[in-house]
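Replying to the earlier thread about multi-chain prediction with a worked example.

Input:
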Amino acid sequence: MKAVIIAVVIPLLIGVFGFWSFTQVKSSALEVVRSLDALINAIERGRWEEAANSSHLLQKAWDKASQVWGPFKDHDEIDALFEMIVRTQHFTAERQKEEALTEAGVARSFAHHMYQSDLPGVGNIF
Amino acid sequence: MIITIVRTMILFLLVVLVVRLMGKRQVGELQPYELAVTVMISNLAAVPMEDTGIPLFYGVIPILLVFSFQVGLSVLSLKSIKAREIICGRPSVVVENGKIIQSELSRLNLNLNDLLEQLRINGYGNIEDVEFALFETNGQFSIVPKTGKRPVTLEDLGLTAPYEGLAYTLVIDGKINRRNLVKTGRTEKWLNTEIQKAGFSGPRDLIIATLNPVGDFYCQPKKELNKR
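Result:
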């Protein structure tokens, strides 16, 4: 009986935990994506005050997301995205439109990739 | 560095726990799937241990999953004969009624030298002495010698021997094993009397004390007392 419990309960618990961790990673990644969208939108319109405010909100979203991602995602990937976000914020503060938009665009794709790489699809499994 | 130390401790404890729960078989006695699980678990623990860039869960979760799959396969092979044949395989008879089964040797990718080597390792230098020889599912080699070539037993000689049983360890490293003491139906007072009869002051002086089913008490003092 104990063996059956081990063989059935552990995989079930891990499955539930896996699904829960995926939803956590996805919701925090989408929060970062939304913050980046707001920042990109402000920069494209040349509204630098609004961009500075968005940059501040992006930092908050990042702080929350990085804590969630730590136990579940490759730390090198998290560090790489952090570098992009720091560069985006720096270019925004310096009002360098093209550089800020480039970095923010790449960071946005990377943030999407954070949860997309965990989607149970053929491409990710193989 | 501190992170590496903590991660190593966690993974080490996990691997020890999992291997302990997997059972007491030695490497040479593992079924093929058990060997695969053992190799996998050691590798899964080693990678996140040395690379702090990988989340700890990347090691912990596969180890727990592999462990539960191993337990699942064990249950399956315990309950179903068909599953056991698929998972563990069947013993291969390579010598039957004193004759080498060449087709079985070919199937196992073994040559005659391998067979003769195994026979010699098991103490049979002459193939004529062997009635049956089998390669077991865990890779071990079993031999059933011809009737006239097997060692003489008490039964062959028409003799009987008294029951020997297993001696109970009552003291180990100076500490009383109370569970065994209860099993033998003796008390601590009795134990202390026996130790004093042997010339020692108490259990603390002994490295080991045993009682066999016949009732013979045996004890050995610690190294320091021997030197005196």
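Helices of chain A lie at 2-44, 48-69, 75-93, 97-116, 122-125.

Feel free to reuse this layout for your own posts.
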